[in-house]
Amino acid sequence: MPSPSAACRKALADATARWPRRNRASDGIMGDARHQRRPSDHNLGNAVDITHDPSAGCSGGIIAALAIRDPRVTYVIWNRRIYNRSRAADGWRAYNGSNPHTHHCHISIRAGSRGDDRAWAWVSLTGAAPALVDDAPAGRQPPPARPGDSIAYPNVPLRLGSRGALVGRMQQRLRARGWTVGVDNSFGPETDRIVRQFQRRRGLHDDGIVGRHTWNAIFGA
Predict the structure, then answer these.
(1) Burial tier of 96 (Cβ tally within 10 Å: 0-12, 13-18, 19+)
(2) pLDDT of 157-212, one tens digit each?
(3) Residue 205 — left, alpha, or beta (φ > 0 → left; ψ -120 to 50 → alpha)?
(4) Rounded Cα–Cα distance for residues 114 and 9 (Å)
(5) What pLDDT, in 10s, does the model give residues 114-149?
(6) Rounded CA gap, 221 and 147, in Å?
(7) Residue 28: helix, strand or coil by DSSP?
């Protein structure tokens, strides 16, 4: 009989320990009747949903950003995007499933990690943690950038199709450097063209992917 894995139970317990007043309405491990009709890690107890409750500090963006760094994790779904560890080079991709996962962050773990109940990264968070996986939809303007703003590379490459506040910050920084690019939180063809031009100007590989070297060149002095 399938049962909730120790790793998934620990994920929920650590979220509650860090944010005791968080909403738990969308929490879950074992699959319901809908999940049972199709293959799902929930059916085996190898997936956990953690409710998105930014008012209590428990942002799905924070959970997602930390979860993808955990070696127990195989993939994460959050806010219409999916990250597969087996396709890490592709970064976050659009997710078009029937459930957009805007009310909770889904985390699937390796079958071999079921009994691994080590602490999850969010339990030890202190202060304000940045939501590296944006909670806002594409099109919403990010807060105005201040002169000299610099953001450390988020360990998630941006490329054609990427969305979110990190894309907006990058676009703002390019504009501040004199590049004519719109700021819309969406890495579309125009942004791709500007990034490639920037890469060529700086002697970087002009693949249109904002990895560590391109990010540091954009936000550097």
Answers:
(1) exposed
(2) 888 888 877 888 889 889 888 888 988 888 889 999 999 999 998 888 888 998 88
(3) beta
(4) 10
(5) 999 999 999 987 654 444 455 544 444 444 444 444
(6) 11
(7) strand
Domains of the chain, residue spans: 6-124, 136-221
For the record, the structure tokens of 169 come out as 């910050």
Mean pLDDT over all residues of the chain? 84
Q: What whole-number distance in Å separates Cα of residue 154 and Cα of residue 160?
A: 17
* Distance from C-alpha of 163 to C-alpha of 188, rounded to nearest angstrom: 9
Q: Can you tell me the distance from the alpha carbon of 209 to that of 90, in angstroms, rounded to the nearest whole number?
A: 10
**Contact status, residue 187 vs residue 160, Cβ threshold 8 Å:** yes
pTM above 0.90, yes or no: no
Q: Determine the topology of domain 136-221 in CATH.
A: Muramoyl-pentapeptide Carboxypeptidase; domain 1 (1.10.101)
Give the residue among 81, 87, 35 at the shortest CA–CA distance from 61.
81
| Residue that is written with structure tokens 């703003």 in the block | 149
Identify the CA nearest to 161 among candidates 196, 130, 185, 134. Answer: 185
